[in-house]
Amino acid sequence: MTRLPVGRSLLAVALGVSWQHRLLRHHVVPAAWRRQCFGAGSKAEDSSPVTPLLKHLMFKIKSTGPITVAEYMREVLTNPVRGYYMHHDMLGEKGDFVTSPEISQIFGELIGIWYVSEWMATGKPKTLQLVELGPGRGTLTDDILRVFNQLGSLLNKCDISIHLVEVSPKLSEIQALTLTGGKIQSELDVTSPVYMKGISKAGIPIFWYRELQDVPQGTSFYLAHEFFDALPIHKFQRTEQGWREVLIDINPKAPDQLCFVLAPSATPATEYFIQGKEARDHVEVCPDAGILIQRLACRIQEDGGAALIADYGHNGNKTDTFRSFRSHKLHDVLIAPGTADLTADVDFSYLQTMTQGRVATLGPLKQQEFLKNMGIDVRLQVLLQNSSDTAMHKHLLQSYDMLMNPKKMGDRFNFFALLPHQRLARSDQKVNLQHTKSLSAPVAGFGELVWK
Length: 452
Ligand code: SAH
Prior knowledge:
The chain is an alpha/beta fold. The protein contains 15 helices and 20 strands. It binds S-adenosyl-L-homocysteine.
């Protein structure tokens, strides 16, 4: 399997500065500018192919007026006909970005160990539903299943099933190939929310759904890697007249281009999403992420299990993080919609608030700390010792550097967990997988994992 030493986080670090400057210019927008366009399509060299999605969005704007950034993002990424995620594989060298599981198998293996350790720490429930949100190519689940297979003696009495929440027909096809070798059955029962099912190479049943609500209740372990950053955000700007939502309109100076404008007055969204004590001048809010977290929190509160969320993000202190990637380069968010990825940093403090105290949360913890606690150094040494191939050694060391280096993915990516409250009671010991009945063992990754 080719794992590539390129990550979208790295590109953001490398290229983000100039992009940030361009948008920061608009952080304080005078009242007279409110209907004036800003933020896109201003450079003469910008090519502006009129994509089918652009035509669709322009029609919409002409009919009902400027749209929110959230509506733009939803349409661009997941419009069933033309959405960016729907019909092509954007991951990897030939695509637009590469993620940690695609960089190194070690990443998925350590996540697999996390799930086994949490399953054991919660008293080895008889069933284990692994639910992945936005599984990409299926690589992460594949690596996790390899760990489950290797730890078969621990898990042999457990009824394991895999549940994938994926909107993209193209990516679900690739996931099926990765995980089942192509042995799938398309669900013909129109009343079932399962749109495809298959059996993993090791005989574990796999089900595909479009939404989390469709996944059956029961003890479940949830995973979302680079998923929350793809959910639609609303953007708000502080002005002298108060907070205004940032909208997207047709550029009056270039009628085949879009531009940002500010809503002429406060809207219910402004009132609802901006806290009175807000100190920033620009705020991004992702209500879809809030709803999803509430659903996860309710499920974990009722049925047990855990959720692990890994993404780039912040704790409610960043401002303008909305960006686009095409062919591993930053791209203008408003140019050629549907041909490039759109993403925004995850606000972990908002996620924590939206759990409404139903579950305990851990993190956000930097990726390099999480992986170190999970034993990445030991795993790397084992793989290096098991191979005498120089190219393999080089690859292992390069991918380790990509995941762990603070200037690459190490500091930029964060791990965040939701757990039942009882799981965290008295968590002041090292994790010991031999003492699995205790719910009070510390949580691997967020504390040191002791694997005996
Ligand atoms: N987790 C993978 C892929 C990340 S890309 C990895 O880290 O490699 C984002 C994934 O989320 C893709 O699989 C995309 O199709 C899926 N996705 C995006 N928006 C979604 C939505 N609203 N519902 C379900 N899946 C979504």
